[in-house]
Amino acid sequence: METNFVDYVKIYCRSGKGGAGCMHLHTAKYLPKGGPDGGDGGKGGDVILHGNRNFWTLLHLRYQRHIFAGDGQRGGENKSHGKDGDSVTIEVPCGTVAYDAETGEYLAEITEDGQTLTLLNGGRGGLGNWQFRSATNQTPRYAQPGEPAVERTVILELKLLADVGLVGFPNAGKSTLVSALSKAKPKIADYPFTTLEPMLGLVPYRDNRSFVMADIPGIIEGASEGKGIGLRFLRHIERNSVLLFMIPADTNDIRRDYEILLGELTKYNPELMDKQRLLAITKCDMLDDELIDQMRAELPDGIPALFISSVTGQGLTELKDALWNILNDESNRIQTFTHRNLDISRPSDEDDYEENDPFGHEGPVTEDAGDVEVDW
Question: What residue spans of the chain are helical by DSSP H?
Fold first, then answer.
């Protein structure tokens, strides 16, 4: 079934070109040599990104491939200034990052509602010959042309804003945990890759406090090479303050599974290793205290671990306490997110969508992946 979550679009943008200045010499019945009076040309329109909290995906831009701002108008006689071109505003959800599609260079990001950033500047209007008059050049017979438009193909990526990101293999219990801690209703089933789109859940905490948890589709060994769903959804945990690794208790080797997950994250973005991490051993409702003590010796070093069960509620209070303490740790608060340029050499199935375009547009069509559900 087709879903409506789109977190990647490629659009062609062009700002407006500046209007040309006017070359005109004023004449009147009793003023045969009135001098220059050519006005300036108007400024071309800008292409602007605007954060809008009412948007949760880039679906509205999926088939809007070409975005053009208005051109500035030519200046007129009698020092008339040309009309400025109309700017065009692109409404995007908070968490959207813009990259140059040709080079992968990071351009801008929108993180707050109402935030505006100029993606492309419109061309300046040319000066009319009235601006060039002087004591030694009283009748200039020239004017400036307007500046040309700026063209650029831009990639917009949505990276969901959340405090805690869940990392684990398929069927590790990530969706079950989100449903147990929040009012979000993710799809839960006993087959791999039940979750096909990111999902947010608002987790209530003591004294009317809360934090946001992001559930992404499971990754497997070799995901960086395109196996499973690949790593395309890992962009949604790049901004998370804490990474919660989830490994089921019935796995054969907890330490090895953790190292595989850590390795896939490193291949995607080495900066993810700088984030604080917590390990949750899930599906522990069938374990007794003696078996849990035996399993503690098999846990990976250097990461705090908790044994939980989303079905019975075992350890969930301790998990929320641990997450809240890490989120409010002073060293975690001052942590900054640095943007890296987009790796355009990485193969992406999001660009292979021309044949699926029902409207016959030229260029790639983004692949969608489902609705983002947020429960406030």
Answer: 174-181, 254-268, 289-296, 316-327, 330-333
